[in-house]
Design goal:
The structure is a homodimer. By secondary structure, chain A is mainly alpha-helical. Chain A contains eight helices and two strands; from the N terminus they run H-H-H-H-E-E-H-H-H-H. At the A-B interface, helix 1, helix 2 and helix 6 of A face helix 1, helix 2 and helix 6 of B. Chain A binds a DNA duplex through helix 3 and helix 4.
Chain lengths: ~160, ~160
DNA sequence: TATGTTACTTGCAAAACGCAAGTGAAAATA
DNA sequence: TATTTTCACTTGCGTTTTGCAAGTAACATA
């Protein structure tokens, strides 16, 4: 069964014999490791992309996004992103079935990370969406500001 | 068995019925998806961090790094990073047992990605390595230039 | 020559993933 | 009002990936 709880498992003493605390939830307190533990899978950043760049905010929209995430995985990732305060859920006042997902300020702050990942792939892999890439390359601060303004407008 | 070959599996037609090409290796040609498919796991970016920031260049160093990667996973990730031209392997001329791992120019270009991930975690999670964080915050272009200079010096 | 090091591979159990099908509540439709 | 559809999930199950422990071949060192 998929669990949405934070990973609490600690690695046993490594080959090098270094001890690790048993109370820490993370493998290490390195800031990069924190990002990797929260975002390092094949789906989380794509969900954030759909929210940040495409304005998606519902389960169905994420499910129908191009890469084709499985429904149980989507539910799991949304729960984890919410547990990490990257997104927030709110019932739609206009439709009792719907849940509206929104990026938190913490989630919005991932914009520079996504932006640099897009630029890296654009420089080194064969990818599409050249208009987005050119927009970022032309004026990165302006692009980031536009994301922020859209977020404020839809909050 | 762990495989280092690129994932060729294609998702079947999704719930939305959209067709996907069977010849593409990637789920989509979105640049962010490319980055996620190459880097989106719990270990690859940590290996790159160890090379970029700590100057690690051997299997044993990666294996003994703090987070405690398993030896089979390390071998698999090194092979994948090499297959993606992010790192290159060369035998150590001074020691026939050793393999020296180096970042390629493509791998070095991940510095802005790692940097933004560090800054995000520093802003939103409880992490250590404050000296690194302050160095980045003080002058990001200088920090990135320093990484590049070290890389040139050790090539 | 014996022992340690380095970069791996192999076997196996546990966890995560992916697909298909099902569920319950609310909304839309006949 | 009754029926169907939509939405946000959950469940079951087979496959894939991960993690741990142990082993191996080539080379270096004492």
């Amino acid at each position: 069964m998929l669990t949405s709880s934070p990973r609490l498992k600690r690695p046993s003493a490594s080959r090098s014999g270094r001890r690790r605390s048993t109370s820490l939830a993370w493998r290490s307190s390195c800031p990069l490791n924190a990002s990797v533990e929260i975002l390092g899978d094949r789906w989380s950043l794509l969900i954030i992309r759909d929210m940040m760049l495409r304005g998606f905010n519902s389960y169905k929209q994420f499910l129908d996004s191009y890469e084709g995430i499985a429904t149980n995985i989507l539910a799991d990732r949304l729960a984890k992103l919410e547990a990490n305060a990257i997104i927030a859920r709110q019932p739609d006042p206009a439709d009792g079935r719907k849940i509206i997902y929104r990026l938190t300020a913490k989630g919005l702050d991932l914009a520079p990370v996504l932006t640099e990942m897009v630029l890296w792939a654009a420089a080194h892999e064969k990818v599409e969406n050249q208009s987005l890439i050119r927009e970022i390359q032309k004026d990165k601060p302006k692009f980031l500001a536009a994301i922020r303004h859209r977020w404020i407008a839809t909050s």
